[in-house]
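Would you be willing to look carefully at the protein I have copied below?

:::
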Amino acid sequence: MALNPRQLAILQSVREQGSVKTEELAEEFGITLQTARRDIQRLTEAAELERFHGGVRAVDSSTRNTTYTERQRTQSQAKQDIARQVAAAIPHGASLFMNIGTTVEAVASELLHHRDLRVVTNNLHVARILAANPQCEVVVAGGTVRHEDLGVVGEAALNFIRQFKVDIGLIGISGIDADGTLRDYDMREVMVARAIVEQSRQVWLVADHSKFDRPAMIEMAPLKAVHTLFTDIAPAPAQQRLMEDLGVRCVVATNNF
C-alpha cells in the first residue's frame, strides 16, 4: 500500500516515540483531527501501526526487539521523568542491581550525586555512567558482551549475579502482558534478569507506558515478583486493579517532579 510523504513522516514519528496520542499527531503535523485519523487508518490498514484508546503505536514483533538507537530515542522524556522519580526514592548507602535497558541507564545518570552506593550491573553503559560518581562502588558482571547495547549476558554473568544479595533490584523490561507477565526477547538476558529478581530484597520495575501490552516472546517473571512499578502514565483501570490485587505499588512520574 502506497503511503504519501506525510503518512511516512507520521510513521517515523510514532516509531521514534513508541506511542502517540491522536491529538498530538494532529498538532505536530498541523492537520485536523479528522485528517490525522484518516492517516492513522491508512497506516493501520498497511499493518504499520496499531490503535489503542486515544492514540496509536508502532507494530512490534514478539521475536525481535528494536535497535538500541531506536530504544534510546523512544519515550526519552518519559524515561527521564521515571529516572528522576526512581533516583529520589533510592536512599544513600543502598546496594543495587541494575540490569540492561535504556530506562535503567537513565536512572544511572540521575545517581551521580548519591553517596555510598554499591551497584552490581551487567550493563556496561551503567558502569561507565556511574564510574563518574566517586561515592559509588561499581561491580561489573563478567560474561559475553552484546555488541549492540553493551549488555553482559550468559552463564558467567548469571553465576556472578547469584553471589550477591542486594537491597533493590532495578530492572527494565520489554513488555508487560495483560495478565501481568513480564516479557523480553533474549533468553540470555532473561536468565540474568531472573537471577536479579531472586537475589533482590525488593524488585523495582521501570517501564514507560508503551511497554504495557507490548508483545515479546520470552517470559521473565510474573508481575507479583515486583514490589514497585515506576511508569510515566497511569495504567489502564484493569491493569491498576491487577497491581492492587497482587500488592504491587505503582508510582507515576511526571515531568514536573
Notes: The chain has a mean pLDDT of 90. Residues 76-89 form the longest helix (14 residues). The CA atoms of residues 133 and 185 lie 31 Å apart. The chain is about 40% helix and 25% strand.
